[in-house]
Amino acid sequence: MPETPSKPAPAAGAPAAPAEVHFTVNGHTLAAAPGTLLIEACRAANIEIPSFCYYPKLSLQAACRMCLVEVEKIPKLQTACTTVVAEGMVVHTETPTVHAARKSAIEFILTNHPLDCPVCDAGGECELQDMTFRYGAAVSRFDEPKRHRDEQQWSPVVYYDRPRCILCYRCVRVCGEGMDVWALGVGNRGILSTILPNHQDHLECEECGMCIDICPVGALTSGAYRYQTRPWEMQHVGAICAFCGDGCKTTLGVRNGVILRGDNRDKNGINGDFLCVKGRYGTDFTRHPERLKSPLVRDASGELRPVSWAYALETITDRWRGIQAAHGQFGVIGSTRCSNEESYQLQKLARRVLGTNHVDHHRSADFPALFDALAQPAGAAAQPLPQLADSGALKTAKAVLLVGGDPTQEHPLLAWNLRWAHRLAGASLYVLNRRDIRLRRQARRMALLTHGTEADAVRYLAAPQRGDPPQAELTAVSPPGDKRWPQTPPSTPQPIPGGLEEFRAELAQERDVIIVFGPELTGDAVQALVRFGASLPGHTRYIAMADNANSRGAADMGLYPDLLPGYLPVADGAARAHFAAAWGGDIPAAPGWNQRQMVEAVDRRELDALYVVGANPFRLDPVNAANLKSCFLVVQDLFLTETAQAADVVLPALSLYEKSGTVTNTCGEVQSQRRGGSFEGAKTDMEIIHALARLLGADFGRPDADRVFSEIRAQVNGYDVSLVQLMAGRGALAVPRDGAAPRQAAPQMIRPNHDSLFTAGTLGRYSATLNAVLEKHSRP
Amino acid sequence: MAERPAYPAAHPAEVRVVSQRFGDPRAATLAGYLDTGGYQALGKALGLNGGEAMAPEAIIEEVKKSSLRGRGGAGFPTGLKWSFIPKGGDKPKYVLCNADESEPGTCKDRLILEHDPFAIIEGITIAGRAIGAQRGFIYIRGEYRYVLDIMQRALAEAYAAGYLGANIRGSGFSFDILAHTGAGAYECGEESALMESLEGKRGIPRLKPPFPAISGLYGCPTVINNVETLASVPPIILRGGDWFLNIGLPKNGGPRLFSLSGQVQNRGVYELPLGFPLRRLIEEVGGGVLGGSLKAVVPGGSSTPIFTAEEALGLNLDYDSVGKAGSFLGSGGVVVINDRTCMVRFALRVMQFYRHESCGWCVPCREGTNWLQLALTRFHRGDGRPEDVDLFTDVAQNILGRTLCPLGDAAAMPILSIVRKFRSEFEDHLHGRPCPFAAESSAVPVA
Amino acid sequence: MSVFSPATRDRFERLAASYPQPRSALVPMLLYAQDELGYLPPEAIAEIAALLGETELAVREVIGYYSMLRTAPAGRYHVQVCTNISCMLRGGEEVLAHCQRRLGIHNRQTTPDGMFSIEEVECMGACAWAPALQVNYDFHQELDPAKVDEILEKYRRQG
Ligand SMILES: Cc1cc2nc3c(=O)[nH]c(=O)nc-3n(C[C@H](O)[C@H](O)[C@H](O)COP(=O)(O)O)c2cc1C
Ligand code: SF4
Ligand code: SF4
Ligand code: SF4
Ligand code: FES
Ligand code: FES
Fold first, then answer.
1. Is the ipTM, as predicted for this complex, more than 0.90?
2. What's the CATH number where C111 sits?
3. Torsion (CA) A247, A251, A257, A260 in degrees, nearest 10
4. pTM reported for the whole predicted model
């Protein structure tokens, strides 16, 4: 089949195409843009056209023949999925002939399809089942032996059952065209045709499960979920993925509070059709046997022993009160996987109740530097920064500059959107990187740095007259049609003296560029990037890539030693006064310690209490266990992490999937979710924070996410987002007002994880599926 | 130790145009080809022999005038097809010679390829000149390996003598031809599947539009013609379109090759004027039915609806007459069936072929041919049920007109016509009765 | 290390270069590879994929489509008997049955000594000279049982 969607060719030499063509379907006059497929035009007008092989934005197949309709003046029935609307076209979709054709298509498909829906894993969410019910015949006239083939396991997550396969080729296309992995193909011919995995009897691929998701029947099923339950026995709860910073919506399948699967059932999140291996299969960390079920307190013998919640909380607040009384130092390290409300309340607890600005989180992108750089010159009126792009903007971008990072591994949704823009919108992608990342395959131009860093290169792009250019080899694009994965052999990069010069010249031809940058750029390199962006024609917009599900939220909510929520400087009296009024209490004026400084203070025995919420700082900044003795350590987490193992008190927390609240993705899209699963013995971080505050005499009110979010909307720069949009399940872009953020003192604190597709810090380590995948992929 | 078909002396009723050199050993070499009038047409087209070169439009005009219609199956007017190729443009253009000959009952292109390879090369070159192409490909079915060898030798000779390659014989026109082998797939005879196959892919047909004239091989404008069609071009250019037209009937120019096979005395490949009576082909040229009396005739290869003896004997073999009678002249494969042949078994064997050759891409063809083959097998075995007979028609009707490419129709049409015209034979198989023809094998051994 | 002879390898490289797009050479290459090796083992598939810059999957997809290509060995003499209509009407099925009897194997089987294999095939363009069979690429036409015996015997003697 043609590998690209056959774009209807405009009539050669025709005058400028009209804005709309008019045609008739079942007597109704409809209008659509020229080039629109009949099936899309009908669906837009709520005229139903059944289909199997058609899938929006994937290449056309004309294979299932389910969408046949009558078009006047054409003797044969036509496939609505490949017919382009034309002026004056007269279409009928509900005639006896059309009905008969649909019925027969179903009958044909069922001739070799098992009729055992009750035991099929897709039973209840099968398009064939639905269509048979609506368009099929009651009885089958096929009375010959069916072919049998055993089910095959292709990977830890992918199983294929040939007899159920209706050969719609959706899986093949989504893996190739959508994922650019090309791991699936079609083997044999005729009635023996079958879907093939790329390595004879198994798959070597990204394990994204997109093929499973897109399969209309039960031919591809997921190892992580299959046969555990039936769709109608689960509740389906929309959640935001707890893994990377892109904020995909994943729908949790929950039975009796247990999260049995994640999938992309409704496809109405910011991620559209997309979900990666983590979002889909990583949810099983919630069921890991080592999850903490009870608070633990270290007893006299030095062992962590299970205790009651009341006892644990009192143990903590007793100690804290003592330290307060002695004017001791408190440190608080927050999470990149808690909700915005929790991060906000946590820093409030630190600043207002514990009286400390020693607040931080594990940073992986320099958001303050970006907002600072985008700020208008001093004196200009504060206004929202229009230079931020949301993830969806990538899909329609005309040109994208990607500096650093490796979205394919670290930001799968952004990578999906970039590929989308390349494939469907003809976007020009420019890549600047030290590594030969896979998105080179979609790049119009790649500057592969052979010496120097991305930061050097960006500084050079911004101010070429200064200094020697970092050396870049310009390597263009892969040969068209190349399907190799994971590596595409380098297309012999040519070392071009002044390669960056050429790169810059090409970029200068583009308009309205979206610049996406990774953690390689911090501090003044971000400033330089924005200067360069400002020199490009049109309206340049930015996306900074941070690691985790709520890394951006942690930053926005003020988990910084020197920044209050909304990037307002702690040192700024007016900003302090604003929050002091909102919180009913004073905020210390001096900026505090960052995470590393806090750990160093532990080592100097200068930190008396450290409260760690959903983070594992000792993995990054190890401490000497002996020095911990003088620091009262409280850790609140799902698992006994390295940090938790050293704690005096450990509190079992619920995961992001088990709580309501909002999270903000790396682009700044705020999304809200409702509690999906539950877990006996653990509490939400917010419940814990509120309880601790109450015991210390501060009333944070009911631990209710909506209530706290109202406060955030009212108080935090950029968070006055549209509730309507939020309630509709869409992302609402949080746009800080400019002029606010001061230079960050410590760009070296940007320490990305460089997660791969299959790793995800603590959560990943406790996901059985991700571990199985990882194990398979690390075998030689 | 392979065998070549012996080519019998011409039958007096024949008009030998593309078969003019059949059996003539001289045609195997370029020198012999030139001796027998070869390359005069290209000479005329390119103005090599002193005269003016023909304008490309003039070549197309001459072909249009000849009313040459495609000999591959669909019978599309060749000149008209060529004229669809856009003039100019910056994409290369291609001429494809379809030598995939796989339609059961058809064995004529093999003879041209074997006996007159240079005529094909000359025809492709003229076609290339006419449409502004610089490259041609001959797609030869994989089973025809010796034919590929013959063709490759001929191409090498033509290159060596400057009849191919850059600046052909100083004309300023450059043209290349490559012979390419398939590897066993009837569907690769379908034009768009052939292009996919020639691009090194599975032979899955393409969506149309775009049509090959706009986007064919490698997405470039492409003309595809059958071997015999292209081999007819040099004589047309040399002797004029009118001459060719007058051999046949209006809109049915020229003679064409008929592959006569089955239960008939003198099987073989005969070049007869279009409009030739089928009765004469069977009785006079073919020497009569073998092993019984005439029961049925397949007029144009296995995919064309079958005729009863009565229908067949009143039929003239031209595109329009056969069309009017409800079938197709197709590839010219005339298969003669005597009255000791079981039509259920015949239908089953035809369906077995289409089931095997369905590319499997689209549902009705893939599943329908399988269903019919299984059901016909059961039926012929004696496990038929009365309702099966209508089921065969129904299933075939559900394939007809609803598939991506014409293979679906090719599978459906024969069974529809066989059930309609020989229904009683189906009924004779019912109620556990053994096949009434089983006792005596109808197959006529080679005497 | 190539699994192909230097001559074949050389031929492949020339073949790939003779088309506007190298991938066009895939089907001929596979057929010639099979001619040399008897079938298409995984190493051959890998080598051809690498030569054309294609995935092995892409090559396997193509192999599965074409009925002459195989990934398991056949007999040294692969006897392909046509039973399609023109042959059937002249005894093609009897020829097939006769071959099976003579060689003691069924359709798609190989004799224990690896000498012969049998495959029932579709029309091979010999309809007017039916019934017909091909041994590897060689045609044999206008067959009857005696002639079949003669042919098989000749190949057997050839070894
Ligand atoms: C399933 C199928 C198989 C075909 N096989 C052949 C073939 O083997 N040889 C051929 O010349 N045309 C074949 N055709 C017809 C071609 O698609 C095409 O119409 C023909 O090559 C055009 O050449 P012509 O106009 O000279 O006949 C086939 C068509 C179909 C649908
Ligand atoms: S899991 Fe993803 S990468 Fe793997 S085969 Fe399926 S779609 Fe392709
Ligand atoms: S496995 Fe599923 S998606 Fe893939 S072709 Fe079969 S039915 Fe379609
Ligand atoms: S009609 Fe048959 S051969 Fe043609 S595309 Fe459909 S399945 Fe393939
Ligand atoms: S949806 Fe149109 S053919 Fe499948
Ligand atoms: S039917 Fe056997 S060769 Fe044509």
1. yes
2. 3.40.30.10
3. -110
4. 0.95
